[in-house]
Amino acid sequence: MEETAFLAPHGNSTFGFKLAGDSYEPDEDLQAPPVTKWIRNGRSFVFVSRADPAVHFYEPQSGKRWSIPLPPRSQPFDLAVWRNWLFVAAGGKTLLATSEWEAGTTWTSLPCDKNIHALAIQHETLIAIDDLEWLRYELTPGGASELSSIELPQYSSHTIEAAAYCDGKFATLSGLVFHGLVGKYARILCGSTSQELGHAGTVEGHFVWRHRFSFPPLKGARDIAIYRDVLVIAADNHGLITTRMSAEPMPLSECFSGEYCGVLYDGFRQLWPDPAKRRPIVRVQACDEPAGFIVTSTERIQGRKVTPWEAASSKKRTSATSLFLSYEQVNDLINSIPPGTILGAPLSERSRRAELRREAAKENKA
After folding, report:
1. Alpha-helical runs (H) found in the chain
2. pLDDT recorded at residue 212
3. Considering only CA atoms, which of 221, 223, 224, 228 is closest in space to residue 246?
């Protein structure tokens, strides 16, 4: 019998997914709001949902499930485990820790004066990433101590909206403000030095289709994940965006001029994986085993808008669908689609077709 491979949102709940034939299908309803982030801890899963002030645990072999309440009004969105210590980013400047994994535990608040966007364990250090700085906590058997910070490289005013960590690198997704213009910005940062390895962006104020200095679908970016040499972005109504990363920094791409450089060398592609066709893609998480990416899409939110999407789903204002794309599948997609491609057509071809349509409309109007 196949074991639970990963956790993902399905319908209005969190499900354990198992291999069924050639694909992974929802199998076990964990009766918790749609998962925001999960990690493996031995043979068990630990997960949180932004819509639920609690940390949840699931042991597939025994079927045991239990939860640890968080302080009221917590919106947990990331977690990390080191030995017997559990760390939770619970929203805003709240960073919690505990070494007791049973109901009734007492949470310890770590010193934190920054809005945390992601957590990672690197060697014997807990890293909490903020818009401007990384907070580093030295880890000991007694917990986290010796707080220090490293300032991040800045090129404009930006606010991190999503971040992910893998193999010593952070991928961050930011809202960008630059000389009165707004846009989105993806960066790859070294986990040891915090130095930038590569970046790409789109500025809506410079949105000119015939000039290929940015990739317009990035403006819808909502979530980001990296695994090995592949970067995947959930771009809401713009589908899924993928690119490849280099092991070493590369020269500026001709396709994207100064807005696209570093390890993000290969050019973005936009696509819609089935069965997420034309549904907003709101979440992506990398997975080690099986190796690949878990992609979550939602139906259009019904009635009054509820945010975040996890809360909208738990209130049954929308419904989530998750699918798994293996690392090989994403690699094949990147290899089969030319760089700078939007929905099967290179950006320049789409731009030229748009120009022809506008010219034809002017002629008809005349």
Report:
1. 309-314, 327-336, 347-365
2. 42
3. 228
